[in-house]
């Protein structure tokens, strides 16, 4: 069987008040089973729109979404999704938040609770099972949101810039944490981020997106072995790839500034 999530020639044009805005153009990408794939691109380049298409919430103007060889374009409920904000239900306990996706899928409650308890221990949240979200820090809430996605029965996980709102140190800890969890689980992940370093540290493959209408500028295979240690961030190849992606995005920024007559500084990458 063709075990992968594949987006083929996806395009999306929004029409409102008589005007057309082409957001996505000819996006083709693949997440093989067990792969960690990231998308890096400018904000407003249509990454959330892409996730909405994959999740079946909106239909593409053209192109298809394939899952394990089957055309699933427009079908809901086939992926698990982790949003930018943890979006935990304040009236549910941590364990009940963690099992939400399983509950929605109709899976047995007792088994789900057992799994959640075991995982909460593994992610450093033992003792918080019966607590409510407001007592947890931002990083802890993100871990619960991640667990909710991880415990959901769907194979493919879409993570929409999950660490964007965390402070730098917590974000760094979360990246290390996510890598170690992912390396034991090997779920298939499509991850959106603004951070080039984050993408390089976490991913097997990176797709660099252009400005609108968004296309794939480049597909990069990340060569670092696993288990991946933080030392990888210090090696020359890491810096070469970081520079390459930065240059691609900077060129895009320049193209956008030229076409709109404005001059903006690139904000999503460290300068060289
Ligand atoms: P990103 O997640 O990369 O920041 P989005 O997918 O949220 O980007 O949005 C991409 C572009 O599509 C934006 O310019 C936004 O205004 C436009 N857009 C998104 N949804 C709609 C919609 N329903 N109608 C019209 N334009 C939309």
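Q: What amino acid sequence fits the structure above?
A:
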């Amino acid at each position: 069987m063709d075990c992968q999530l594949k987006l083929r020639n996806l395009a999306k044009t929004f029409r409102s008040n008589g005007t057309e805005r082409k957001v996505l153009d000819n996006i083709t990408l693949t997440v093989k089973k067990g792969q960690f794939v990231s998308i890096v691109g400018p904000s407003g380049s249509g990454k959330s729109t892409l996730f909405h298409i994959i999740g079946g919430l909106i239909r593409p103007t053209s192109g298809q979404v394939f899952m394990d060889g089957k055309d699933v374009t427009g079908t809901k409920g086939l992926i698990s999704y982790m949003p930018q904000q943890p979006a935990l239900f304040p009236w549910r306990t941590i364990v009940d938040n963690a099992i939400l996706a399983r509950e929605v899928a109709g899976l047995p409650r007792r088994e789900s609770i057992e799994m959640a308890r075991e995982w909460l221990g593994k992610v450093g949240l033992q003792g918080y099972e019966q607590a409510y979200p407001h007592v947890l820090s931002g990083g802890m809430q993100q871990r619960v949101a991640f667990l909710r996605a991880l415990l959901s029965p769907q194979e493919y996980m879409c993570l929409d810039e999950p660490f964007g709102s965390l402070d730098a140190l917590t974000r760094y800890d979360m990246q290390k944490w996510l890598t170690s969890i992912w390396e034991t689980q090997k779920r298939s992940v499509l991850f959106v981020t603004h951070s080039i370093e984050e993408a390089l540290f976490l991913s097997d493959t990176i797709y660099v997106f252009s400005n609108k209408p968004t296309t794939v500028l480049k597909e990069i295979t990340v060569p670092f072995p696993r288990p991946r240690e933080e030392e990888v961030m210090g090696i020359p190849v890491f810096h070469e790839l970081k520079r390459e992606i930065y240059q691609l995005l900077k060129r895009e920024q320049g193209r956008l500034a030229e076409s709109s007559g404005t001059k903006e500084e690139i904000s999503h990458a460290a300068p060289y």
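Q: And what stands out in the fold?
A: Helices lie at 47-54, 94-98, 100-104, 109-122, 138-151, 168-185, 196-202, 236-260.
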